[in-house]
Amino acid sequence: MTSRRQVLTRTAAILGAASTGLVPSARAQNAKIRIGMMFPYTGTFAQLGLACDNGFRMALEEKGNKLGGREIEYFKVDDESEPAKGVENANKLVQRDKVDAIIGTVHSGVQMGIHKVARETGVLSIIPNAGLHAATRALCAPNVFRTSFTNSQPTLALGKVMMEKGHKKAVWITWKYAAGDEAGEGFKEGYLAAGGTIVKELGLPFPNVEFQALLTEIASIKPDAVACFFSGGGASKFIRDYAAAGLAGKIPLYGSGFLTEGLLDDELAPSAQGIMTTLHYSASLATKRNDAFRLAYAKRFKMQPDVYAVQGYDAGQLLLQGAAAVNGDLTNKKALYTAMENAVIDSPRGKWTMSKAHNPVQDMYLRVVKGKENVVLGVAAKALSDSGAGCKLG
Ligand code: BEZ
User: Which of 4, 107, 230, 293 has the fewest beta carbons closer than 10 A?
Assistant: First the structure.
């Protein structure tokens, strides 16, 4: 017969091992890990949301759909890129569905809602796209990790490239919301430092695509070049309207790579030739890792992956590494976060690591549209880290 003393000793041993992550806790053994997927599955960013979702699922499928040995279960919310519903939608996942982690989202304004809920409840939040600065700067949090970029990261390297091409006076144009404004901050910092002058900043509310009046204004200003942030369906419309207004080939167009990412089909490509962008990924990166990823994704989803798919895939890789370190016990937060902070992600974009503020330290590529490809011309910024200004972690 087992004595009370033996039972207590064994229990203490199990608890001790569980807290060090050596064996799964009772919960880890029995329950599925609940994953909340919060993305725009409709609207201007629908294609981006789907790609992030696909990428994440593919990373987990490659490892048998298990996290640290535990089965998983998905819960899904369409956030519609609607900031006003951000908190409510995140709470659906946390309070109603009791998820262990939220994977999402695309739009910076909606991310602010998820971020508020993550900070208040402590739920693990992995951001596979939205670049709002606050999430990994002043409002950074131990339970929030990003596998994409900060909004100013891709545009920081753009200004130097434009000045090297002799474009001394530029117009900046964007959607007026956090992502556009912060991409503008990055552009301004790099372009002014390289000696350029921004002669006009133009904007319109997200997701408005009535570009005509603004393009007429650009034509009258006659800058050396135009730089911008647009993405998804709006980016495609901007490129077509830019060409239709007679500006393509006359006033060179630059942008963060979202402008042309995942959009270069037969219809759009003729209007996009020569557009130069900076981004942390390109389909044309000639590495074994990228080739293998692209092939597997195309087979699985019958479509081509883009940067959003890569970021979702890396969110999956990050969670896999974290969960493995704690044998699936996501309540062992200290060990989980340490493993995620120290993760080296073998990404299709190239290997990257986490900054202290939980944002990727990564290369930025210079790309030009040729045919239907964003052809890589070189590395515009090596191992670029966001400032993480105001973040008090680690
Ligand atoms: C954002 O809102 O943060 C965002 C959306 C699309 C592409 C890049 C950033």
Answer: 4
